[in-house]
Design brief:
The chain is α+β, with helices and mostly antiparallel strands and 165 residues long. Helices cover 22% and strands 27% of the residues. A hairpin with a 5-residue loop joins strand 7 and strand 8. The radius of gyration is 18 Å and the shape is globular.
């Protein structure tokens, strides 16, 4: 199911690519080394660990006090290739539920091998986690605090057969 207005922006995108997209052979290397960690919020540390470590099979790698907020837990999951998914809890701040807003996080897309994708899809089914499957390679679902996640079976640097990196 697709969303949005039935408008054709092909010409606009072609013009943007022509004007702004440098061909790979002429593109300068990025100044970044990669994603060190992406930090999200957790309302319950144990629930978050059960979801990400036990259900999605992302190993918990460390847990300690947040340096910026006394009593806050900062904890990390291995999402492959030296990249980490991190969480904070902020007890006493009453931050409210996850909300998708302009300028905010839309979703976190995590690449997994196709066999692992099928395995995790079966685990989501067994756990009763609702998801939306798109194009036979993407599963969209919500984490324990409402954060939107995607498991994508496409290789890193590719999306639906198009090289994106």
């Amino acid at each position: 199911m697709r969303h949005g207005a039935p408008v054709d922006r092909t010409a606009e995108w072609d013009e943007l690519r022509k004007r702004l997209l440098t061909p790979p052979e002429d593109r300068a290397p990025s100044s970044a080394r990669g994603v060190h960690h992406l930090a999200l919020l957790s309302s319950d540390v144990e629930t978050t660990i059960a979801f990400y470590q036990d259900l999605l099979e992302f190993p918990l790698t460390e847990l300690f006090e947040n340096r910026d907020y006394q009593g806050s837990t900062h904890f990390f999951f291995d999402i492959g290739n030296g990249n980490l998914l991190a969480f904070f809890d902020f007890p006493g701040l009453d931050l409210g539920n996850y909300a998708e807003v302009l300028g905010g996080l839309h979703h976190v897309a995590l690449s997994v091998e196709p066999a692992r994708w099928q395995h995790l899809k079966e685990k989501l089914d067994a756990a009763g986690v609702d998801y939306q499957e798109m194009s036979g390679t993407s599963l969209y679902f919500r984490g324990p605090d409402g954060e939107r996640l995607e498991l994508i079976a496409d290789p890193l640097g590719e999306m639906y057969g198009t090289t994106v990196a």
